[in-house]
Amino acid sequence: MIKREFIKFIFIGILNTIVGYSLYVLFIYLGFDYKIAAFLAMVLGVLFNFQTIGRLVFDKYNNRLLFKFISVYVVIYFVGVVIIKIGKSYGLDDYLAGFIAVFPSAIISFLLNKFYVYKEKM
What we know:
The chain is mainly alpha-helical.
């Protein structure tokens, strides 16, 4: 079951990543600091991601899960900002550092969504 969900998560995650990273790039292009750009992209992407991940990956949609979902994205935001900051300390620009942050953030997002937000009740 995890394998099937993870494969669906990857495909839906690609779509969500395109949306989120595009928003991040837009805000960087508009002159926002990387922390603000990451925050705005996260806020705008949360509802879109909540719909796609809940319905299409875990076959669950319940508005009561939104608070847990948002808490996952708070964690993901801080993970991403730390990775971007580390990348910048090695001389990477905001765009490349943000792109690199996508991959560990996606893995952490899957695990937290699977075992915290959309976990099966026992």
